[in-house]
User: What shape does this take?
Amino acid sequence: MKDVDIADLRRITDLVKTKHGYDFTNYAMSSFKRRIVRILELYNLNTEGLLKKLLDRQFTEEFLNEITVNVTEMFRDPSFWRILRDDIIPAILLNHQKIRIWHAGCSSGEEVFSMAILLKEMDLLHNAQIIATDLDTNILEKAKKGEYTIKNMELNEKNYIRFQGSGVLKDYYKEINGKAILDKSLVADVSWRNHDLVKGGIFNKFDLILCRNVMIYFNQALQNEVLKKFHESLFKYGYLAIGSKESLIWCDIANKFIVVNNEEKVYKKIKD
Amino acid sequence: MSKFNLHNRYKAVVIGGSAGSFQGIVKILSSIPSNFPLPIIMCLHRLKHVRNGFVEALSIKSTVEVTEPYDKQNIKKGHVYLAPANYHMSVELGNYFSLSTEEMVNNSRPAIDITLGSCAYVYRNKLIGILLSGANKDGGLGMKYIKDKGGLTVVQEPTECMIDTMPKAAMSLTTIDHVLRIEQIVRLLNELHKLYKT
Ligand SMILES: C[S@@+](CC[C@H](N)C(=O)[O-])C[C@H]1O[C@@H](n2cnc3c(N)ncnc32)[C@H](O)[C@@H]1O
Assistant: This one.
């Protein structure tokens, strides 16, 4: 088992930042360190070796793929998706005809397909404008394809049943060559974009932002910064959904939000 | 004064357990004083997609309320924390939790090795690690990390375990300071409590 100390981590983040413009300085240390160790083992490198390889742009892309944690599910936390369908989306529709949604840190797209299915079952798919972003270009390509392993589909099916969708998940995919190929028409209007929450700017205004299980990889200082961006990117009375084990209460601008559902961690912007 | 060789400079107790550990955990939590001087950090294998119920079941008999921490929540003495379903739970320098959805480790999320490993890194020789009954080797490496940093290692007596794979894995990987029955683990924790009072 390889090990890295804080000084090594610093050298790595400094290099990636100055040379390539990605800033991992404020990532949560415990998981970031495990990711670095994982990369060292994967490529059989020591810190020096890694630093050398990180001078190369192409390798740095691979590095980004590995550093980010892409584990995701369709309808992760089914009770959250029920709240979305039964409370949040109807509330948005009271004031807006079109629903603008941003999936920040969409990973391989399961969350986006889930949203599209939910909207389709509400007959709202064409009233929605969805933008899905991630830092990791590789995973975005995967998301666009919408091909998942059959093994993962078992879990996705279970989640969908708990979500109490109006059909069966099989309605939305075909099994080809041992893979589940999701119905592309679901995401035909989705705009997939490469966007870095750390360095990237504000690019649109939304009624609903989902950023679930992404900010857990950041330290509190960075969570604060990113929350400011979400605040700016939301219409007044727009909604922000974070992971069920995340909390905003200690952020500087927490008072600009109210908790709409504490169990499922849905917040609403109430002040500009 | 006692065979456990304790002192009062510990910063935390971390407990790992899996199959067959529930009764033991309940026994421990119902027998510690309600003003226990350290945080108790628990990583127990659990159903990945059942978010509710476990923490409540553990709380019923516990002298201290058991909670699942939020990401970046501060760690306080006298509190009992349980790793939430489907998340790995780590401790950070600065004494707070981080959660993560990284790949499963030893087929588990939460993985005991991750919680124990991060505790060892942060608390070093001021940590007590306790590993209970379980059917896989998760936690074994974690106990080694704890020992390597100078912490105190305790496993449940294998003959008392419903399934002894877990404590045995730890015993084969590192030096275990105390091999104890649940009842003796309770005694150790109570002795610890007394040391902090004086
Ligand atoms: C664990 S996945 C979350 C997927 C999904 N939202 C869910 O809850 O299942 C975290 C994602 O955040 C992305 N991510 C990490 N840092 C990021 C950053 N600075 N900007 C944008 N995305 C980032 C990762 O690439 C990864 O795909």
